[in-house]
Design brief:
This protein is α/β, with parallel strands linked by helices. The protein has 1 helix and 4 strands, in the order αββββ. The protein has a 4-stranded mixed beta sheet with strand order 2-1-3-4, with no helix packed on it.
Length: 95
């Protein structure tokens, strides 16, 4: 087998291997529920914040927890409001 053929095959196989790699997953989102006055729906981005200090809305980083790598936090700072699960979701963590 000639050098040119070996060279071509080596890089063709490398290119094929790169095509078979999985696409990178979406970054994990960790959000805190805090009823924002809009409604009680889980899917309303205005009800979710990036920290329990409610300084940055989760809308800036994906809206609300909705993937298997995400974390939904409902803790004492969330208040006593009702959360309506208006969408089907599978999340990674629920605290």
């Amino acid at each position: 087998m000639s050098y040119a053929t070996k060279f071509f095959l080596r890089y063709a196989l490398a290119a094929l291997a790169l095509c078979l790699l999985p696409v990178s997953a979406q970054a994990a989102v960790s959000c805190y529920w805090f009823y924002g006055g809009v409604d009680h729906n889980y899917s309303t981005a205005g009800n979710w914040w990036t920290s329990d200090a409610h300084s940055t809305p989760c809308a800036a980083i994906g809206g609300y927890p909705h993937s298997t790598s995400d974390t939904a936090n409902l803790d004492a700072s969330s208040g006593s409001d009702t959360v309506i699960q208006d969408v089907d979701i599978t999340i990674g963590h629920f605290t």
